[in-house]
Give the backbone structure.
Amino acid sequence: MRRSRLPFIVLTLVLVFFYLPILILVVNSFNASRFGSGWQGFSLRWYVRLFQEAEIWQAARNTLVIAVSVTLVSLVLGTTSALALHRFAKTRLQRFHYTLIYTPLVVPEILMGISLLMAFVSAGVPLGLTTIFLAHVTFCVSYVALVVLGRLQDFDYAVVEAAQDLGAGWWTTARRVLLPMLAPGLAAGALLAFTLSVDDFVITFFVAGPGATTLPIRIYSMIKHGATPLINALSTLLLTLTFLTVGASQRLSKNKLLEGGS
C-alpha cells in the first residue's frame, strides 16, 4: 500500500514557513542595497558599520551583563525552589509555593511589566539596570525551577542517602552526587534563563530607565528610524551566537551523559 505524501508536504511547508524568513534576513545582511529591495551585490559594509555603532555595543554590553547575572541568580533560586517543591510537595506551604512559581508563566507580559513598574515607582526605586535585573529574575526563576523540577522527577534520593550513610557530609554529597546528577537540568535551565533575559522586550521596556537600554529596545528604536541593513547584520550575529551556545550546551550534556555511563 502506497504511503501518503501529505505529512511530508505539510512538514516541508511548516519548515519553510519557519526558516525562510531567517534565511532571507541572513542573505540580506550581505546585500549592498540600502533598502533590501533587490540584490545589488555581495558586501560586508553593514557589518563594518555595525562595529562602528557605539550605542549598539553599549546596549549589547548591558544585555549581556544583565543576562549573565540573572542566569546565575535564577539558577540558585530556581534550583533551591525545585528541591523544596520536590521533597515537600504534599505540604500546604509548598502547594502555595508552586502557585507562586507557576504564576509568572501564565501572567501576560504586559501586565507583569505594568505591575513591576508600579511596584518600583511606589517603592521609590530608580529605574535602570537594577530594575531590569530584578524584573528578569522574577520570571526566569520560574522557568529554571520547572526545568530542574522535571529533572528531579526521575531523581533517586537513595543515592544521596547512600552517600551520607558512607560518611559523606552534606557539602560533599551535594558536590559529588547531587550536582552531577542534576547537571543536564541545570544546564538547560541556565540556557533558558539566559535566552529569555537576552530576548525580553515587553517587560524591559516598562522597567528600563535612562541610560539602561538593552539590545531589544535598541533594535526597536533602530526599526523606527529605518536602519534595516544594520538590524539584519546584528540579527545574523545573534543567530550565530545562539547556534554556537546551543551546540556547546548539547555537547556538554552529551559529555556528561558519557561520563555518567562510563
